[in-house]
Amino acid sequence: MWIDFNKLPDQARVWVYQANRPLSDDEVSETQQALQSALAQWAAHGQPLLASAKVVANRFVVVAVDEGYNLPSGCSIDSSVRTLQAIGQQVSHNNGPVDFFDRSAALQTADGTVQAVSLPDIKGAVTAGSLTPNTLVYNTLVKTKAEFEANWTIRAADSWLKRYFKNVAA
Q: What is the pTM of this model?
């Protein structure tokens, strides 16, 4: 069952999916509509799940479920992954398909946009000074709605990227 994201409890379980490119406003709208339709019918072992999703910064899909209502199963989580794969193919207008499973580091630029740095390029970005311990990064590893709201952007030194700064003062 679909619920407004803001009405989910703070302990709602969250998954963040990162697109490989920015989405146009039309693609965001289309993605939101497809997610709402899919999550309205999302279930685990025949039990409806109370869920929501939203697109953030034209780059991330945040899916959340109230585990206090019903617990998602492995099969239901797998179905949400397949749904995102299908949506990525559906919204592939003139900009090419969308891959919501991008694993690049996502940095917040000074103007608030997202800059993706591929995993092989992270060391070079640190060396060049474009990725510093104080660079804000999008924390795609959040686990709950409360954590998403409190720690969506964090310093790179406080993220999984901290290992790249071992020889750099934070």
A: 0.91
